[in-house]
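Quick illustration for those who missed Monday's session on complexes.
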Amino acid sequence: MQHAMLEIDDLHVAYGQVEAVRGVTLGLQAGQIVTVIGPNGAGKTTLLAAAMGLLPSRGTLRFEGEDLHGLDVEARVERGLCLVPEKRELFGELTVLDNLMLGAYARRLGGAALRGRLDFVFDRFPRLGERRKQRADTLSGGERQMLALGRALMSSPRLLMLDEPSLGLAPLIVQEILTIVRGLRGEGVSILLVEQNARAALDSSDHGYVLETGEVALSGASAELAGDARVQATYLGGGSGDED
Ligand code: ATP
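Prediction with adenosine-5'-triphosphate bound:
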């Protein structure tokens, strides 16, 4: 039987007594962009953190058929998983280039492989190439998000998990970043995209899940979800979804 690239079944994640993810089931096939939308505090970040191995969890968690429980973060990176956290977590005092090099560290790349990865990132984010010698803390918000993405790409992920890449960015920059993200699929990178910007996320994905208070409230093809009356009323209501 062919299994999904990522298989999450009845997953539970708790902070002490408080269960933040309560029995989530989610699947992602290789080559897909899958999004998880939902309000503040729904458990989206917690779900990604558990998949990456930053938090313990209960339930099924498999990547390419392999049980992820018992594998630490580094081992998951070696398997081809990578997370771009919401806060981006760049090293502001280091240059763009040094931040990128750190992304290759877990994969122990050197020489030609390292240069090849850098070229791959600079091809997709020419601005990072232009600013390679600049300190990361001199970059604009959009450029920082690009650097966070670029750093993740240095580890040659096959599944890239993005936590709110649109956060705090102007709509035009969000579109620019999501265009690049969609393009990665053609390079063999599948994407799990967590977003509060439901419109942009549904427009950019194949399949979507709506997470509410730790549970999947709705799921389906992204185009269908975008047309769903409940999704429209709660998550797509009125404006563009880009209040910032
Ligand atoms: P946001 O978009 O605000 O990040 P989210 O959907 O990603 O929201 P989570 O950050 O995963 O939601 O939070 C889910 C629940 O877990 C919330 O009730 C939150 O208060 C709680 N929570 C998150 N982090 C912790 C923590 N370190 N300790 C205790 N509770 C936490």
